Amino acid sequence: MRRLFFPSLIGFLAAAVLAAQAQNAPPAGDWRYYGGDAASTRYSPLDQITRSNVNTLEIAWRWATPDNDIARANDTVRAGTYQDTPLMINGILYTETGLGIFAAIDPVSGKTIWQYDAEIWRGGRPPNLGFTHRGMAYWTDGKARRIISGTHDAHLISIDAETGKPDPSFGNSGKADVIDQLQYAERQRNYSINSTPIVVRNVIISGANISDGPPNREAPRGDVSGYDVRTGKRLWTFRSVPQAGEFGNETWENGSWTYTGNTNVWPMITVDEATGYVYLPFDTPTNDYYGGDRKGNNLFAESLVCVDSATGRRVWHFQGVHHGLWDYDFASAPVLADITVNGRRISAVAQVSKQGFLYVFDRKTGEPVWPIEERPVPQSTVPGEKTSPTQPFPTHPPAFERQGFLESDVIDFTPELREQALTIVNEFEHGPLFTPPSLKGTIQLPGNVGGANWGGAALDPTTGTLYVPSLTNPIIDQIVPGDPARGNIRYRRGGVQTLPTLDGLPLFKPPYSRVTAYDLDTGTIAWQVPLGDGPRDHPLLKDLNVGRLGNGARGNPLVTATLLFVSQSGGGIGNAIARPVGDRPLTKLPPEPPKLRAFDKKTGELVWEKELPLGPSGTPMTYMYAGKQYVALAIGAGLQTELIAFALP
């Protein structure tokens, strides 16, 4: 009897634990994180919208943000692109607008339930992209329910999800200051928060938005702190530029650690809920293109850093760019995946990059799943600069983007076009990836917006497939002296900044934007397809039957049980100065409209596309309510921003 009793009791207790977990688990139709879940997979198991019926999707509702009325009434206030991905929690949608206004929305009608405006927009335009915001986090202890976000005036704010009112027990009347005593920081001028924080084990962890174009070498650091979710009290701080006696301080030569700033986490953050580890993608130090004032490898700039959420202790790190000069931030949330490589099960973290690499690590130890090699790279000729002799190159998986600019990358639609393109290319320095900026001007490919950017990647955890939208978008890195009347930076990027086109045709081979699918078990590319049509109807290409070329606009992914969705803004190609081809007049092609597309996950076949009324910037999400699946996304900028939702008839 005893032998039967204990297994039965264990089975009963196990069943009870599973039942309790099921009761506490969010509904399958919820979307509780910016990236869908704490692992930033952007995945939903919903399967009502399929390949066979996606072409019947229609607009279910549209919700105009309160930013529109504010902007029309205030000539100096303009929302940037609407970059939020709304949350779906217990039957309510939550969003944060570019001006920092919070709203709860009915998921069926799109009607406002409540909204809260702290009027932070009255304090002036935030740095970099201005009034943009990428949303909020959600927290509950089973009783209290809170919406947590960062603000343009450098605070964390906690709002009651039921009422839309600030939590009086959090910080000072619902707001906790994040830059108190931070050197060189000025609210809403050079420091703000515009990406969602994340909450893990009752600790809020947030990054920062710091000006990318400072006139001085002195700038605020992008330190990352943990805060108590109930009180807003700061619990710990991880310094992005190590100070005296801290690990990595020796990588900042000549005392540059005392004044160099930036090195911030401006993208989204990822959490392993099982371990409590947090994965922080850091950006470039001050300034983005000249490092003569900060010699050394500059940890933890352009690094992926794993910290313990309880203490802020560094567990491991990987630096993707030593002494960065290309604005190659780690610009997107890392993605957690459980993969099987050569028969070995690995808890992995995958990081896509602006330079077109996919890095894959054991997320507990930081060991690369496949070797990463240090390889020699070209060196700088700019006075006072000291480039790193090597940079890290993954041996596997293969890159998802064109890297560097060689003669083999120049367009070859016709011999004549190639010859003219080479003439323009040779006006500038060019070479392999990590060719440094120069006084003459260097073609950088991918450019400073990628490759991959904050839209990031999406993972199907059922297949281990990672989907990466990306751009092939070069820039010119021409270094010019700083203006002594404005500040003390010796050199900055200026002069020629955009690679010309040949009558609207890029000088490099297509596709100009693409989607790449990786099999993470093998580290191989499963498929790669152009994203958008591009200038395929250009008169110079009319007889060549070139097919889709990609339109050079950024795409943001969502993956479901049935489909891969990618939203894409319009235009993309042809913004640069066009050089004529022979004596023919310049071509005027209409801009490509913004679209939401659906792809077959296994093959990359385009199965549906829908023109959108306004350009999307935020990443799409999906939710289920009252038996119906919806796909929603933020669209628009300036005087017209809104959420739009699609559903089956």
Task: Tell me about this structure.
By secondary structure, the protein is mainly beta. Helix content is 6%, strand content 31%. A five-stranded mixed sheet has the order 1-35-36-38-39, with no helix packed on it. A four-stranded antiparallel sheet has the order 2-42-41-40, with no helix packed on it. A hairpin with a 2-residue loop joins strand 12 (198-200) and strand 13. It starts with a helix and ends with a strand.
Could you list some keywords that capture this structure?
single chain; mainly beta; five-stranded mixed sheet; 3 helices; 6% helix
Number of helical regions: 3
Give the oligomer, counting copies of the same chain as homo and different chains as hetero: single chain
Average of per-residue pLDDT values: 94
Largest sheet strand order: 1-35-36-38-39
DSSP strand content: 25-35%
**Uncertain runs with pLDDT below 50, 5 residues or more?**
1-24
The CA-CA distance between the termini, in Å, is: 59 Å
Shape field: globular
Helix content: under 10%
Helix vs. strand class: mainly beta
Write the layout of secondary structure elements.
Layout: H1 2-24, E1 43-44, E2 58-64, H2 67-73, E3 87-89, E4 92-96, E5 101-105, E6 112-117, E7 137-140, E8 145-150, E9 155-160, E10 175-177, E11 191-192, E12 198-200, E13 203-206, E14 209-210, E15 224-228, E16 234-238, E17 270-272, E18 277-281, E19 303-308, E20 314-319, E21 335-341, E22 344-352, E23 358-362, E24 372-376, E25 390-394, H3 415-425, E26 442-444, E27 458-460, E28 465-471, E29 475-477, E30 479-481, E31 491-493, E32 501-502, E33 513-519, E34 524-530, E35 555-560, E36 564-568, E37 578-579, E38 595-599, E39 606-611, E40 621-625, E41 628-637, E42 640-647
Parallel strand pairs: 1-35, 32-37
Antiparallel strand pairs: 2-42, 3-4, 4-5, 5-6, 7-8, 8-9, 9-10, 11-14, 12-13, 13-15, 15-16, 17-18, 18-19, 19-20, 21-22, 22-23, 24-25, 26-29, 27-28, 28-33, 30-31, 33-34, 35-36, 36-38, 38-39, 40-41, 41-42
